[in-house]
Amino acid sequence: MSTKSFNAFAMAQAQFDRIAELLELDQGTRDLLRQPLREYHFSLPVRMDDGRVRVFRGYRVQHNDARGPGKGGIRFHPQETVDTVRALAMWMTWKCALVNVPLGGSKGGVVCAPHDLSQREQEALCRAWVRAVARDVGPVLDVPAPDVMTNGQHMLWMLDEFEHIHGGKYPGFITGKPVAMGGSLGRTEATGYGVVFMLREALKELQLRPQDTQASVQGFGNVAQHAIELYHQIGGRVTAVSCWDHGAQRAVCFRKKSGIDLPELRGIADRFGTIDPQKAGKLGYELLPGDAWIEQDVDILIPAALEHAITDDNAGKISRRVRLIAEGANGPTTPEGDHILRERGIFVIPDFLANAGGVTCSYFEQVQSNTNFYWTKDEVLGKLDLAMTSAFIDVSQTAHQRKLPMRDAAHIIAIGRVAQACHDRGWV
Ligand code: GLU
């Protein structure tokens, strides 16, 4: 972890300013896009199981909706800040534009530690969040989804509250719903699988065969677990995975050089992706400090936890063998860290391309919810692969034509599309 102060929104704005310069955007467009259009801050009183009322802070930030209703997840995290939510909302705008779905960018958050909340308390929190913004979100305004430490059950409680308030059935209000309740097959897998679709394309560019590669993964939540699952299926081997140990309040890295066994680790992890270190030790995993994931002698790194994972403090520790980084998390690499990766010639699949599978599948879920006609899992994943692979090809072509890294090329495409939409609407 870098000791320098880190502000995700300042980082997102600096990224934007650099691309605005490359695109020669006019001042009005810059002023519009470097800030959110709207944001809501609220207090959420929740009666806890012991009878006391605890008040949580919640946010919804709507960065831009020129291309369609806002879209983006809701995070439950003890270190959530409004600036992180602002950055994540901006990144959602670029992500939706990059994969060319007709959606804008939003993000929500609640400052809370879901590990410490009972199911009933979590339900009350979800319902309170919806009550706070019920008039400002909805199928044609802004559509939430799961993110860090939220899941289908949370989405269903939120949907139920929204429908209760508005007096009707609105399955298009939220995505990431349980499959039996209007969700899409493949949505749970989509973000992690999408990371591997992008990894597969990048390996082709690097002329590497997946079965000849090894990877180290940061995180063991939904994105990481499904990325590992598909990467194993295409022949890769994950030798290390790190996760947050909530009890000990530190990260731990689990290493098995012969390759981790995904079902085995899933069997000893809680629902937030914390692996039990004692049980892992008994199963023959080496327990290393949390940041050891980045120093592994592997070909591929997959940061799939939170922002601020690869910085100028630790990028120098990346093994000379690493050829490829696929950013499963949002914002895992700071600009300073990115600079080091560029100098090293590491191929980076930027977050808003690598992890776009989630929102792309959310868009498919909306289409299915709105038409009340549901597709097979193969259909969903086939369409997902097609949409993401075509976005990868766009980015790779722009990168080659303009001699830019993938991240800059992706920003140029995405920000260009959003700026055009604002212009076409007559906003700027
Ligand atoms: N939370 C996911 C993301 O960061 C998915 C958002 C969505 O499905 O709306 O992309």
Features:
five-stranded mixed beta sheet, seven-stranded mixed beta sheet, Rossmann fold, binds glutamic acid, alpha/beta, 428 residues, 14 helices, 12 strands
Bin the strand percentage. Answer: 15-25%
Query: How far apart, in Å, are the first and last alpha carbons?
Result: 40 Å
Which series of helices and strands comes N to C? HHEEEHEHEHHEHEEHHEEEHEHHHH
Overall geometry: globular
Mean pLDDT: 97
Number of strands: 12
Continuous helix count = 14
CATH homologous superfamily of the domain at 189-349, by name?
Answer: NAD(P)-binding Rossmann-like Domain
Descriptive overview:
This protein has about 425 residues and is α/β, with parallel strands linked by helices. Among the domains are: about 35-170, Rossmann fold, CATH 3.40.50; about 190-350, 3-Layer(aba) Sandwich (Rossmann fold), CATH 3.40.50.720. Helices cover about 45% and strands about 20% of the residues. The chain contains 14 helices and 12 strands. The strands form 2 sheets. Strands 9-8-7-6-10-11-12 form a 7-stranded mixed beta sheet. A hairpin with a 4-residue loop joins strand 7 and strand 8. Helix 6 (about 185-205) crosses helix 12 (about 355-370). The longest helix has 26 residues, at about 375-400. It is globular. It binds glutamic acid. Glutamic acid binds near residues 95, 145, 175, 330 and 359.
